[in-house]
TrEMBL record:
The chain crosses the membrane at residues 6-28, 35-54, 60-78, 90-110, 116-136, 148-169, 175-194, 269-287, 299-318, 330-349, 361-380. This is Cation:proton antiporter. Residues 19-376 form the Cation/H+ exchanger transmembrane domain. The keyword Transport applies. It is found in: Membrane. InterPro entries: Cation/H_exchanger_TM, Na+/solute_symporter_sf. It comes from Geodermatophilus arenarius.
Length: 400
């Protein structure tokens, strides 16, 4: 009977993901990102509304979806960015955000509004780069100089909070967390060295190239194996898989070399086609709407703090390199948060240190940022539209 319930829930979750894609296709000017439709559909399916099922019913698939969110974000991020001005300013902006968050949340903690000091403070410094990627890529905001600054700001806002989670909020203590970070770094280094060791003309290289398409799909299967292995290991040792997935994505682009565009398209198809929508629908199902309704001002408070603490520093940090409009876009993108918030609130609730109403309000505020900020950032974009090609009189023009 339990299996039937899980399958029924998965069918409903999949239906929501299809419906969201259809709505976006039918109404391309709909000012609502697809991820918001997925979250809203999850809320409708969850215990707070229709009670079709719970997030626990699809937890394994949702965990793989969360891993894909971070893997795809890491895959998009070029490590060389951090040696450029964009990376240095992104690090400075996040540091300022962290200091502001510690100060503000310290005051809230002293006033009895917040119990889980560190999870809430880190939550105010996060950026949902993996969530934003489809919107930014579709609207062309990742191209050009602005795209470099957006990617760097988003990457830092996703990577550094996850590092802090692993070190300070791991269930096995800081020593075990540092050991695990070293293991992940060693894995990344090993993958990089293996890539150098595999010559392009070797038998193994030829086998990989020959089997990366058609029915074999070697590179795609190996990537999925790596991701699921990371999730399985972190489940076993009570660590979070998001850091490993993010770093794995950064290493993979370098590892596959010239096949990177083809692998990216396949990962998009598998991730965004199935696993990532399941994660967001499950996140909506897990949202405690009752707690938000009982204390709506907490959601408003966290929403304002996300914009001020995470987005505000961008207006100053990028003052000499970006015009005001692009700085505003960077601030809005930086202040958009959700996946890390979900992980933080789950950790806080499991440890018993976070109030349920604060957990719901944080995730709810993250949902609002995903709803509003990407749409506003796109609305601020004033790049001229590309002119439509004019066919020659008498038919399509050909080479002279």
């Amino acid at each position: 009977m339990d299996d039937v319930v899980v399958i029924d829930t998965l069918a409903a979750v999949t239906a929501v993901s299809v419906l969201a894609a259809v709505l976006v296709g039918l109404f391309p000017r709909l000012p609502v990102p697809q991820v918001v439709l997925l979250l809203a559909g999850g809320m409708l399916l969850g215990p707070s509304a229709l009670d079709v099922g719970t997030a626990q019913d699809v937890r394994v698939l949702a965990d793989v979806g969360l891993g894909f969110v971070f893997l795809l974000a890491g895959y998009e991020l070029d490590p060389r960015l951090f040696r450029e001005d964009a990376g240095r300013r992104a690090l400075l902006g996040w540091t300022v955000s962290l200091l502001l968050a510690l100060g503000v949340v310290g005051l809230l903690h002293a006033g009895g509004v917040v119990e889980a000091f560190l999870p809430v403070a880190l939550g105010l410094t996060t950026t949902a780069l993996g969530t934003l990627l489809p919107v930014l890529r579709e609207k062309g905001l990742l191209a050009g100089r602005l795209g470099r600054y957006l990617l760097a700001a988003g990457g830092v806002g996703e990577l550094l909070p996850v590092l802090a989670i692993a070190v300070f909020l791991g269930s096995q203590g800081r020593v075990a967390a540092l050991v695990s970070l070293g293991a992940v770094a060693a894995l990344a280094l090993t993958l990089g060295l293996l890539r150098r060791g595999v010559r392009d003309g070797s038998r193994l290289a030829r086998a990989v190239v020959a089997g990366q398409d058609a029915t074999a799909q070697i590179t795609l299967r190996a990537t999925v194996l790596l991701l699921i292995t990371l999730i399985a290991v972190t489940e076993q040792f009570h660590l979070d898989a998001v850091l490993g997935a993010f770093l794995a994505g950064m290493v993979l682009r370098r590892w596959v070399g010239g096949a990177a565009p083809q692998l990216e398209a396949k990962l998009d198809a598998v991730g965004y086609g199935f696993f990532v929508p399941v994660f967001f629908v499950a996140s909506g199902m897990a949202l405690d709407l009752g707690s938000i309704a009982d204390a709506p001002l907490r959601l408003v408070l966290f929403f304002v703090l996300m914009l001020a603490v995470r987005g505000g520093p961008a207006l100053l940090v990028y003052r000499r390199v970006l015009p005001l409009r692009q700085r505003a876009q960077t601030a809005l993108v930086s202040a958009t948060a959700l996946p890390v918030l979900v992980a933080l609130t789950e950790i806080g609730l499991r440890s018993g240190h976070m109030l349920p109403e604060n957990a719901a309000a944080l995730v709810g505020a993250g949902v609002v940022t995903v709803l509003l900020f990407p749409a506003l950032a796109v609305a601020l974009d004033r790049r001229p539209a590309a002119p439509a090609p004019v066919p020659a009189a008498g038919g399509p023009a050909g080479p002279a």
